[in-house]
Amino acid sequence: KHRRLVSSSMAVMLGATTLAACGSSSDDDSGARSGPVSLTYWTWAPGMDKVVDLWNEGPGKKEQIKVTVKKQASGDTLVTKILTAHKA
Known about the structure:
This protein has 88 residues and is an alpha+beta fold. The chain has helices spanning 2-21, 48-57, 59-63, 76-87; strands at residues 37-43, 65-71.
């Protein structure tokens, strides 16, 4: 149970960090938008597809931000994929 809690907490923190990184640091709130946005969220944590569904039905729909879940392996396999994606 402890391992699941730690994994879930890490997934939530990574998700929050990812979404925060998408924010704008500009004070100019001109309302200019480039249109709908699609994001792919890599996760190994169970149940994150349900969290994403809630996002897509609520704030995501309002802000035209659609998130798609792509389940990944955990451990070394995930780390390798993340490092490879970062280099690309």
